[in-house]
Design brief:
The protein is of the alpha+beta class. It contains six helices and twelve strands. The strands form three sheets. Strands 6-7-8-9-10-11-5-12 form an eight-stranded antiparallel β-sheet. A two-stranded antiparallel ribbon has the order 1-2.
Length: 248
């Protein structure tokens, strides 16, 4: 009587392939005593055309090395997410007059040309002591518009407060200008401060990567703008220079 195999030919060929990784052992039924390959039970699932076999442990499992080093992610979630208000302040002597620096800072229309990551800046209302501007900031992957109300005291103060927008819970920047070094009339002391808090926890995490760098570049960007408009700065002896930074 002929017994037909229930496993199709293709399955038998694949079963031989699966046997390659099985351990060798000497079969008692081998007449010559040569090592033969222990066959594993194979089942053919006709419903989905799959072969199933019980493979040795060393072929179907991975012994994980406990000393593997964890990979660094772009945003770290190892610590609890907190939406903390951040503050940054900088004080330095600049080789431009109070009036020159005031004009640079108060001219918000030009921010898009030199302020880091400022994509758009339009003054929609301006009076002698206050103004209203719409700005758009973008640092990957965030691009956001907001309205800023400005308080102006020539040539001493420019203060800007964010009044709307989806990006910030709080954003306030302040520039104060005072006389610089005695005997150097075309110098001033610039005090710059900013405090901000994002609405989104994700944005707050991204701020540690991008927005902090924007803040650190801010004073230098306005100083370069003054150089473009008014020429080289006043040369100040190194021993008279000072530069202070505070960040929380």
């Amino acid at each position: 009587m002929t017994v037909r195999s229930r496993i199709p030919p293709c399955a038998r060929k694949l079963s031989e392939f699966l046997e390659i990784g099985t351990p060798l052992r000497t079969s008692r039924s081998s007449a010559a005593g040569y090592p033969t390959r222990a066959r594993q039970p194979i089942r053919y699932l006709s419903s989905c055309g799959m072969l199933m076999t019980r493979a040795p442990r060393r072929l179907c499992s991975i012994d994980w090395d406990a000393t593997l080093h964890p990979s660094r992610s772009f945003i770290s979630f190892t610590n609890p997410l907190t939406n903390k208000r951040k503050e940054y302040s900088e004080r330095r002597i600049l080789g431009y007059s109070m009036q020159e620096m005031y004009d640079v800072v108060s001219n918000v229309d030009d921010y898009k040309d030199f302020v880091p990551w400022c994509k758009k800046s339009v003054v929609v209302l301006k009076r002698s002591s206050h103004a209203k501007a719409q700005l758009e900031v973008g640092f990957p992957p965030i691009v956001e518009c907001y309205t800023s109300m400005l308080s102006l005291v020539r040539p001493h103060l420019v203060k800007a407060v964010c009044t709307d927008g989806k990006l910030f819970n709080h954003l306030e920047t302040m520039w104060r200008f005072s006389p610089g070094i005695p005997g150097y009339p075309r110098t001033c002391t610039a005090d710059f401060s900013i405090s901000f808090e994002f609405r989104s926890l994700l944005h707050s995490q991204l701020a540690s990567v991008f927005f902090d760098e924007v803040v650190k570049q801010m004073v230098a960007a306005f100083e370069r703008r003054a150089g473009k408009l008014y020429g080289p700065e006043t040369r100040i002896p190194r021993e008279l220079m000072f530069h202070e930074i505070h960040q929380t």
